Amino acid sequence: MRKYIVTFAAAVLIVAGGFWAWGKNQAPAADGAQIEKPPALAQQHSQGTPTTVLDGQNDGSASSENKPEQDKDQRPSGSVGGQDKPAKPAKPAADQSKPAKNTNTGAAQNGKPSQNASFGKTPTGGKSASGTGSGSSKTGGKGFINTYSVEHVVSNPKSIEVLVNKTYRLPEGYVPPDLVYPNVPFIFSEKVDKRKMRREAAAALEKLFAAAKKDGVELAGVSGYRSESRQKTLYNNYVQRDGVKAADTYSARPGHSEHQTGLTIDVSGITGKCAAESCFAGTKEAKWLDKHAHEYGFIIRYPEGKDSITGYKYEPWHLRYVGTRIANEIASRSTTLEQYFGSAVPVSK
To answer: Hey, which bits of 219-338 come out as E strands?
Structure first.
């Protein structure tokens, strides 16, 4: 009988202990405490500190020209590429494991040109021009780096909106179809090729010169259209004088020059003083152009402080015709043609 009593007591203790442990596990957490499951292993590996990539920054160093500026280089919400937006705060761990939406479609938004003969799909095989296929680049857009390391031929060189730089070149031997002589003064008298421009750009240049003269600023042309062979001669001369690295900061290689498009012209004051020289930046002519060129469809193609994006040093004399719509938008943001197009860039055939 005693044996059965001991066995029964032991059973009661075991059952009571089980109920006590179950009740403790079901007890609510303390006030204000949240119980979260730890992220899965794959989620833990995918988490990391978000990095803000600044325009023009490609070496990880910080400089004053690479800092984002309010109402200047930042794109409005929904703009192509989105690289100019300030970085968003990190999402909770559970959301970070989800793949990001692909916004690099190559299609333009907010009134920018959509995909057409000038702005097409990404290069063959889905790779970016940088060969990496992802990440922010030296141009301020996603998908390519503005260097000669990769080269693509633009699909529509006749487009007024064509982008030509160190990554995107014109077809070999390309000559614009409608070159004319704009009726404006030049610093030389010879009627040679470098007086020419595309018809639409020439008409806009005449209006720009007339408006400047009305404001007491007399401009003169320095160099307009330039053939690929002429660019080759100039570039090789610069290389012999200064070396390749230095030449690439101020002169385009053959096929990569905007002058070959017929949409570009270098200008100076009527006297020719400081023509295509850094001292032009402080002149009244340069100041007038900076303030008014966009009103006639021109942009300062290589702005100050943007050489890491455009690939070239500041050239206040270098005007590129893109039409008033694009010129006004670029001027209002103090940005560049590369940043304007973002990922919607001309591609190889």
So the answer is: 219-223, 264-269, 298-302, 315-321
